[in-house]
Structure formats: structure tokens, C-alpha cells
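Sample intake sheet
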Amino acid sequence: MISNKTEIDGFQVSLTAAISAERRALLKHRLYGRLRTLEHLAVFMEHHVFAVWDFMSLLKALQVRLTCASVPWLPQGKAQVRRLVNEIVLGEESDALPEGGVASHFELYLHAMDQAGADTAQVENFIRLLQSGQTVDAGLKQVGVPAAVAAFVRQTFEVIDRGRAHEIAAAFTYGREDLIPEMFTQLVHGLESQFPGKLATLRYYLDRHIELDGDEHGEMGRQMVSLLCDGDPRREQEATQAAVAALQSRILLWDAIALAVEQLDEEELIQPL
């Protein structure tokens, strides 16, 4: 049982130290310097949209495990954890839009892709397959996603399928939400000035993540991980390992996207006159 704030803070400090090398590698990744044109950005978004989708899957896995999602309703787990999960779900699954209405961040990202000229066909076909009853793995194979995207999503679902809430929360918080404010700030700068009229929705999506994840959801996630570990050394070790694995998986995805962008540049250089 967690006895005091000092114990919580101590675990968070040790976890943050354990993932520091992976965080640095992501924040300094060569990918950011490669995104110079709309075509580059389209390649990025067509890969990254699957990470946006499986991020939502991590969140819903937490909600299913940590709150009552069936009838009759029964109190489940700690009320403080339920509050944290449900507040994050509200923002991620039904965020307010600037022009009115609401949408999930995944749906917002699809709109941003359309506006930027990125192809949404692959991910939309994937969603339709899931809606028809296909498994995630079968859907990935059928739509032919890049190998790095498939590996990334499968790693996420390995964590989900193990069913350990503290691991899912750690992957969600430290592998995604906690990193997004810094990671995406590097992509935001200069995009609108380079491509006026094409990136308004993407800029809004990024700004919302910077705002929510930097100011609210990141801290909520860290609290949730600590509460779920509850001072248990084994759980803390498993949560730390899940966070490191999520970041390492993201690095591999970033490597693959950078390579795809570089290959696009090479193809353009050898185009016949």
C-alpha cells in the first residue's frame, strides 16, 4: 500500500530515469528534420495514424479494466483511478472542436490527413475490417500495412492482451501521452507558414495534445500508474519495463518512417526528365 507522497514521487523519479535514454533518442530523432514538404508529411501521417488508433485502444483497455463497463453497474477498483481514466477518455474520445461539435482525436486526425492530402484509405479499410469482426492481426495483414507499423501495433496489443492494468497504464502514459508535448512541438514549428491552408486541423490536433497532455493528461497518467502499482516492487518493475518497451517500439517506428521519407526523396531524385 502506498503510504505517502514521497513514496509515489520516488517511484516516478526512478521510472523517469529508466526511460531517459529512450526519451532522448526520440526527441533528437532524425525524423523531425526530414519532414520538409507535404509529401513528407503525408508519409508520416499515413504511418502515424495507426499509432493514434492504438493509443485509443490502450486507453479503452484501461477504462474496461478499471471502471464498470457492463450492466448491472457495480463499483470497481479505486474511485480515484476511475476518475482519472474517465477524465482522460472524455478528452480523447469526445473532444470539443473549434467549429463546434465533438470528435475523438482519431477522427480529428483523419480529418487532418484529408486536409493535408494524406491517404486515409488504408487505415479506413483496417477499421472496416475490425468492424466486420476481423482480428487486429488479420486486419493489419489484409490491408498490407508497412512491417514497422504492424510490429508497433502488435507490441501495443501484447501489452493489452496481458491484461495487467499497471503495464497498460505505463505504456499509455510514459510511452505516449507523457512524450507527446515535447515530441510534437518539434513538428509544429513552421508547418503552417510552409503550407498555408493545408494544416489547420493538424495544427489544432497538435495544439490540443500539447495542451491536454502537457497540462492535464500527463500528470493524470502518472498518478494512475503510481496508484495501480500501489508501492508493490514487482508491479513497479513491470510498469517500468512496459514503459521502456513502448518507447523502444516508438523509436523503431520513427526509424521506419524516416527511412520511408528518405526513400521518397531518392525516388524523386531519379525521376526521368
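Comment: The beta strands are 95-96, 102-103. The longest strand covers residues 95-96.
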